[in-house]
Design a protein that fits this description.
By secondary structure, this protein is of the alpha/beta class. It folds into 2 domains: 11-30 and 57-130 and 139-177 and 195-272, no CATH class; 292-466, no CATH class. It is built from 18 helices and 8 strands. The strands form 2 sheets. A 5-stranded mixed β-sheet has the order 1-2-3-4-5, with helices on both faces. The protein has a 3-stranded parallel β-sheet with strand order 6-7-8. Strand 4 (225-230), helix 8 (246-257) and strand 5 form a beta-alpha-beta unit. The longest helix has 31 residues, at 353-383. The relative contact order is 0.08. This is DUF1308 domain-containing protein. It comes from Hericium alpestre.
Length: 482
């Protein structure tokens, strides 16, 4: 007895289901390329921890979450259909698989960085009608762009219209024109090139052009480049097999004449299921600081900090011991705080015991967090000190003239106020030297570098120049003394 192999149920639908599952996995593991600003950063992650795995897809890339939800919805619909006992005798359900797969393929292959997926743009006229709640007018649809790429410079729109769909539109248009053309003589009929070609593809192209003109690239007056991916339109199709019409090729030509980059056909399957992309080819940028170095408030505080100048511990454990208190010390601190609170309390009924315990615990936790942060900073100094890093970065400028350090009067005054309140004796001494008038620098330099693990004039920090301000100068804050 011959056994005939069972034919798969709806093989095309099965293929789409597999592809959609691959796309869903690809989206879930997608890591977009995010260009880094030109920042010289040699800091280390002391703790070695990261929360990247917990990043929400919506925060990762606008539109990514809705795309994944749409893919999963189609997967669910397809799976439920194929699980039916009579699925083989039923017509396949309508899904957006072809469109969704094509959009994801464009995301993966578009010029980076991607700004958004599925964003709607409005023309100036539509923007004026955007608020329709009060007027009761019909809301405008806007123009949907499937992928906003190249940092907003490129708009990509995917369209899955087939030849058969356009042929239907052409037949409808021809039927409308028949009566009006009956009155024309043969020599009066317009040629194909002269006739107005109107269809959904061209209307979409015109809408994209209008929206692009009214939504230039941020910070410029330049309109985004438009890429129109027509996945299933074939101007060279066999008329006897797939159906064709010269107006399909003419439609594509008109789009290109409008300045639209028309791309035909579907992308290869392997291009659609890749999960990640590397950064674009590196231009081998060489980042080099200028001779005029601006110091903000945080770096000013770091320059006078004991952490920057003190002798380094030999091990990470020693760094922890310098700042992170032991459990016995924390318990002692809690008991001291508790005793002080209860001893100073005047009205015993005004505050409960639980409130006092919470105060002591909060104090201890805050102290512990601050201590751990200081220990982490010290370990960073052990890896490469701030002054050492600055010296190495600025050494390349030796042939271009002396380096000058600048700051604002506001940053200087805020630094002085902070150090006056919480700085130690050595930190106050360094701040006093750093902000000394640029008359005679010999003594301020000696004062600043005193007891530092770095030699005198390791960096030409003095004189520290102050940027001129258009506002009238406020009375300078008193410089702290040790």
């Amino acid at each position: 007895m011959d056994h005939v192999a069972a034919q798969p149920i709806h093989p095309e639908l099965q293929r789409q289901l597999l592809q959609m599952q691959q796309v869903a996995n690809s989206i879930s593991s997608y890591v977009p390329y995010i260009p880094k600003p030109p920042v010289l950063d040699s800091s280390a992650d002391i703790q070695g921890t990261s929360d990247e795995g917990a990043v929400d897809l919506g925060e990762l890339l606008p539109g990514l979450r809705p795309l994944l939800d749409a893919v999963r919805k189609d997967i669910d619909v397809t799976q439920k259909f194929l699980e039916k006992s009579n699925a083989a005798s039923l017509p396949a359900p309508s899904t957006n698989a072809t469109y969704l797969v094509a959009v994801w393929g464009e995301v993966l292959r578009a010029p980076q960085p991607i700004v958004a997926i599925g964003r709607t743009f409005f023309t100036k006229n539509e923007k004026g009608k955007a608020n329709v709640k009060k007027s009761g007018a019909r809301p405008t649809a806007g123009v949907k762009v499937d992928v906003v790429a190249n940092n907003g410079k490129t708009w990509i729109r995917v369209n899955t219209t087939k030849n058969s769909r356009l042929l239907t539109e052409f037949r409808e248009m021809d039927s409308y024109d028949t009566d009006s053309e009956d009155g024309l003589g043969r020599g009066d009929r317009p040629s194909l090139a002269q006739a107005e070609v109107d269809n959904s593809i061209l209307r979409m192209g015109h809408a994209l052009i209008s929206a692009a003109k009214d939504n230039p690239v941020v910070g410029t007056t330049v309109s985004p480049k438009i890429v129109f991916r027509l996945t299933r339109l074939d101007p060279h199709a066999d008329p006897e097999i797939e159906g064709n019409d010269p107006r399909i090729a003419l439609t594509i030509d008109i789009l290109r004449d409008m300045g639209i980059d028309v791309q035909l056909g579907e992308r290869a399957t392997d291009e659609v299921v890749r999960s990640t992309l590397g950064p674009p080819p590196s231009r081998d940028l060489h980042l080099e600081p200028t001779r005029h170095v601006n110091l903000d408030l945080s770096i000013l505080i770091a320059l006078v900090s004991d952490l920057t100048h003190s002798t380094l511990p030999r091990t990470a454990a020693e760094a922890e011991e310098r700042f992170v208190p032991s459990a016995s010390y924390l318990e002692w601190k809690r008991s001291r705080l508790r005793a002080k609170i209860y001893g100073d309390r005047i009205d015993a009924e005004a505050v409960t015991d639980g409130d006092q315990d919470s105060i002591t615990i909060e104090n201890a936790e805050d102290m512990g967090k601050h201590s751990r942060a200081l220990a982490d900073q010290l370990q960073q100094e052990m890896s490469k000190g701030l002054l050492q890093d600055m010296s190495e970065r600025l050494s390349t400028l030796a042939d271009h003239g002396p380096v000058e350090f600048w700051t604002t009067a506001e940053a200087r005054d805020r630094c002085i106020r902070i150090i006056s309140k919480i700085g130690g004796p050595n930190e106050k001494r360094r701040a006093h030297a750093l902000f000394s008038p640029p008359d005679d620098l010999s003594e301020p330099e000696k004062t600043y570098w005193k007891d530092s693990r770095y030699p005198l004039r390791f960096l030409p920090l003095l004189p520290l120049h102050i940027f001129p301000s258009p506002e009238p100068p406020a009375p300078p804050a008193p410089i702290p003394t040790a």
